[in-house]
């Protein structure tokens, strides 16, 4: 089966209605039969809904001082930290270095078509406000270029809500969902209560492996598994959580074709899409980067599954959590119109439309920035995250001997793997018993917020008190010691799909470090603490 | 069984854990085992979560011009419309008559403990921001005075979300939920997809009837019904939607006692609580009102079920939709801590914490107003709705002959019922064939937004072309004719619990008019249109 990215007219989408769950088939709110066509008619007086008068909304207007799209540089600064957050924290009222632009959202704007609080704060259908819907439609069509033209865009309160609704729409109790072997725990937590089980697929340096996917689906034995062959996939293709892996175009095409062959709906959870970076280059080899323009930036991004989706079997989940703020609680589905209609019905009986304060503020900022400005903002963010990734690996390089070597697990095949050995002497000033030996390994990610996630493999089998039975206990001791000394990292076991399903080990020997939040000075301090704790931990028990 | 509102120590709550659904028992996110105690320690560097740095939130600050708590008068104005909304619409930029106070929410406030955008816009637990949680706790304890002291308060995205989560927590497929015979359609739409059926209980002028509740529960035949005896009740006790009825303290106590006897959890959906009013007095008999103070206002409100809840079996749903704005998408549960913990887990896999823009703005307005200011705001709102209720009934009184008479249905027993007859001649200028005969009846509500909802009974059996079979068709013709002439009202049948369950007629002959939204001039116009359409409709087919 071949896929196309060319301009030829795509074939008609296949009928996917057999994928709707029992829950989804039944779900729906009775419309006011025969009267709906009248809504919105000019001059109509509606006494139908329980809507308060906007006169009783206690807001005259909201004014936002928003950063300008050019707030962050397009190439990494030679000397980080460039983030100004430490500066703002110290001098909260001194805005000397912030460049902002002010936008106001009045209850009743004088300009027709302007964002209007009286509307945004009222009840509405469980869809986006008009201007936001229009912005998203334009954005999706320019940036993701879906192959099928009549895709629908439906707002939600972020990707957690999005995935939860997708599960309810697509899955019946007792079914399975294909996912990466390491995955986002909350996504699995949405499924388990309804007895919908994760079906882990092996990963490599590019994320979910197409060969393992084909193997699992082609050899599926429903009787032995006591589960029908899965028809839904949950996948985080870019800056994968927790592994940090990013999928190539070729791999995506292979996976898409397999999903067509076995009639699988793909739910593409892609919050880190705009945090794609160039490869990590060690500090001493790094040369000043040249800024790329918007066109080249967009062309450099791994294409969404939407780009190949000639059968309309992709539900893409986008969010403003990583590009504006998590507290926006704003995201959106891009999918076929049948799915969108069912997902909207689910919104009507749960969240309704996302918060009007959030919608109006985000919309107004985006409209003020314009599409081009938002792309500029995203390019700046990408640079910031590049700088953060580079900085933390540079810190590891300062504290440890980092050497490139062969990948030590299948998950890293094809990746440039760094092995870290102790540089300094033991805490008791003698030669450390592990001097010169690899203590952990890592792979620099090319997208997202996470360092190697499970890619940092603690070589606990090197620990003097190691026995396979003691492994988890030992690892937990290390995490506790790190926390005691002031650093919290996420243990790898919480991301194991098999462990979450209760069908596998908790797989010790991994953890995930996120470089997205801490100040640069804290990142540096954390790596120093990590080195000291690790050195002491392995020495004291030897 | 006796209930108490006195100061004596309440008995220990009963164990309600057997009410948790299968879904709820399983639902939960794995914590970072053994590491949670370290979170929040001063100086801790956390590299655990996928949190973006607040430096990347593109907001320096948000400034809100909020109406002052005294914006609306405490007694009805002698000459409505007093609402300024028409004024603002026409002269959006002229703020001469608006009294506002400005509040600013900076990303990094200089005052410690101030509302902080850097925190509100970040990921958080699925709970309220600290200052909001504190405000709500104080508010609930002062206003509702829950009998059990250790009640929990948990934020949600409004009562639709709240009820949906309560259903998931309490009900398994195949079970039933006790509810008013006329009820909020969205509440039933949340249940039906999971095969959870409404079990309608008869109503009277005070809402759900305790005698019918006792009858249904005491005579429950699980085999005949193919359903176990319901253990959950959904109830809208104040300004009921759609009927407008408001429950007395005595009735609430009776219902609470029956729910204890049959081990039923009460979910009290109470969005109209603060829109409680005095009785309607015809215009010509109305005398100027005296404003009551805050203490008397609160004492005048029908007590929440929380007030009697010695067994912790009440889940109260509150919302800012009717008191701030629907677009806030902010509400909260008040319930026992076991329920609250399960409901929080559900939030973690769906909405997460409600929108940070909404939370920070609503919080900042409330803190600026203070508790006393918010109570003042609510007293003003109550007066506005009183004025709106009085105004629309006055309009009916101008267009029709309104006469007090005996209630015409069981639902109205105990209520002052107004019967409306045509005042004017027929459209063809002759005497109307229905001149002097009751064409519809209504009961003025003492709370909420709705005029008698199903209490307006269209006496379609008076229509010349009436046959029982034609009734719905005839009624639909009338609604279409009204819409054609510019007025939309909500047909009663959409609120029938029996009809939604597929187990009853669609019960024509009712509709719900909300007087909450339209301008006063439009309310007046709508009633004139209603009179004209009704007159014509009955004349033309005679």
Q: How do the helices and strands line up, and which of them pair or pack?
A:
The structure is a homodimer of 542-residue chains.
Chain A: H1 22-26, E1 45-46, E2 59-67, H2 85-90, E3 100-106, H3 117-120, H4 130-143, E4 152-156, H5 159-170, E5 176-180, H6 185-191, E6 197-201, E7 203-204, E8 207-208, H7 210-218, H8 222-225, E9 232-235, H9 249-261, E10 265-269, H10 294-300, E11 314-319, E12 331-335, H11 337-348, H12 356-399, E13 400-405, E14 417-422, E15 438-442, E16 450-458, H13 471-484, E17 487-488, E18 490-491, H14 497-500, E19 510-514, H15 520-540
Parallel strand pairs in A: 5-6, 5-9, 9-10, 10-11
Antiparallel strand pairs in A: 2-3, 4-12, 7-8, 11-12, 13-14, 14-15, 15-16, 16-19, 18-19
Helix pairs in contact in A: 4-12, 5-6, 12-15
Q: Give the tally of structural domains of chain A.
A: 2
CATH homology superfamily name of the largest domain in chain A: Type I PLP-dependent aspartate aminotransferase-like (Major domain)
N-to-C span of chain A: 57 Å
Count of alpha and pi helical runs of chain A: 15
Supply the CATH class of the largest domain in chain A.
Alpha Beta
Low confidence ranges of chain A:
82-96
Main interface pair? A-B, 132 and 132 residues
Summarize the main sheet of chain A: 7 strands, mixed
> Which architecture of the largest domain in chain A per CATH?
3-Layer(aba) Sandwich
Roughly what fraction of the amino acids of chain A lie in strands? 15-25%
What average pLDDT do the residues of chain A reach?
Answer: 89
- Estimate the helix proportion of chain A, in percent: 25-40%
Q: Report the count of strand segments of chain A.
A: 19
CATH fold label of the largest domain in chain A: Aspartate Aminotransferase, domain 2
What class do helices, strands and sheet pairing of chain A give? Answer: alpha+beta
Q: Which term fits the overall shape of chain A?
A: globular
Oligomer: homodimer
> In which order are the strands of the major sheet of chain A placed?
4-12-11-10-9-5-6
Rg value of chain A: 25 Å
Protein name (chains A, B): Unplaced genomic scaffold scaffold_358, whole genome shotgun sequence
Cofactor (chains A, B): pyridoxal 5'-phosphate
GO molecular function (chains A, B): pyridoxal phosphate binding; transaminase activity
Family (chains A, B): Belongs to the class-I pyridoxal-phosphate-dependent aminotransferase family.
């Amino acid at each position: 089966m071949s896929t196309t990215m060319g301009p030829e007219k795509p074939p008609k989408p296949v009928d996917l209605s057999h994928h709707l769950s029992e829950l989804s088939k039944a779900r729906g709110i009775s419309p006011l039969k025969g009267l709906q066509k009248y809504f919105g008619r000019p001059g109509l007086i509606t006494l139908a809904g329980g809507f308060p008068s906007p006169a009783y909304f206690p807001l005259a207007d909201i004014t936002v001082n928003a950063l300008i799209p050019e707030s962050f540089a397009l190439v990494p600064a030679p000397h980080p930290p460039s983030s100004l957050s430490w500066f703002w924290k110290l001098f909260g009222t001194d805005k000397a270095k912030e460049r902002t632009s002010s936008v106001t959202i009045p209850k009743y704007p004088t300009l027709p078509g302007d964002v209007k609080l009286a509307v945004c704060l009222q009840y509405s259908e469980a869809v986006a406000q008009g201007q936001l819907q229009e912005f998203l439609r334009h954005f999706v069509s320019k940036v993701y270029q879906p192959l099928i033209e009549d895709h629908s865009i439906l707002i939600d309160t972020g990707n957690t809500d999005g995935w939860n609704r997708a599960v309810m729409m697509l899955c019946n109790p007792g079914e399975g969902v294909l996912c990466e072997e390491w995955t986002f725990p909350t996504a699995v937590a949405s499924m388990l209560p309804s007895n919908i089980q994760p079906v882990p697929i092996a990963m490599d340096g590019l994320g979910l492996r197409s060969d393992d996917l084909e193997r699992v689906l082609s050899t599926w034995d429903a009787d032995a598994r006591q589960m029908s062959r899965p028809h839904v996939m949950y996948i985080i293709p870019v800056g994968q959580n927790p592994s940090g892996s990013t999928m190539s175009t070729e791999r995506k095409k292979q996976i898409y074709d397999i999903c067509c062959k076995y009639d699988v709906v793909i739910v593409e959870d892609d919050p880190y899409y705009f945090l794609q970076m160039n490869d990590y280059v060690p500090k001493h080899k790094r040369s000043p980067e040249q800024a790329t323009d918007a066109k080249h930036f967009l062309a450099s991004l791994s294409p969404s599954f939407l780009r190949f989706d000639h059968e309309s079997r992709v539900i893409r989940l986008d969010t403003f959590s990583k590009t504006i703020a998590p507290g926006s609680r704003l995201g959106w589905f891009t999918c076929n119109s049948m799915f969108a209609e069912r997902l909207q019905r689910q919104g009507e009986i749960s969240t309704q439309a996302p918060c009007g304060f959030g919608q109006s503020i985000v919309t107004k900022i985006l409209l003020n920035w314009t599409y081009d400005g938002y792309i500029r903002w995203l390019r700046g963010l990408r640079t910031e995250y590049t700088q953060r990734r580079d900085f933390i690996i540079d810190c590891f390089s300062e504290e440890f001997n980092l050497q490139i070597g062969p990948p030590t697990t299948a998950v890293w095949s094809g990746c440039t793997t760094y092995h870290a050995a102790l540089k300094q002497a033991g805490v008791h000033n003698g030669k450390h018993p592990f001097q010169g030996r690899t203590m952990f390994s890592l792979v620099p990610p090319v997208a997202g917020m996470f360092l190697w996630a499970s890619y940092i493999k603690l070589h606990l089998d090197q620990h003097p008190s190691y026995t396979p039975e003691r492994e988890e206990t030992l690892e937990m001791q290390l995490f506790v010691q790190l926390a005691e000394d002031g650093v919290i990292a996420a243990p790898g076991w919480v991301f194991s799909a098999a462990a979450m399903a209760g069908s596998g080990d908790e797989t010790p020997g991994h953890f995930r470090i996120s470089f997205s939040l801490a100040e640069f000075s804290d990142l540096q301090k954390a790596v120093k603490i990590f080195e000291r704790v690790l050195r002491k931990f392995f020495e004291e028990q030897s």
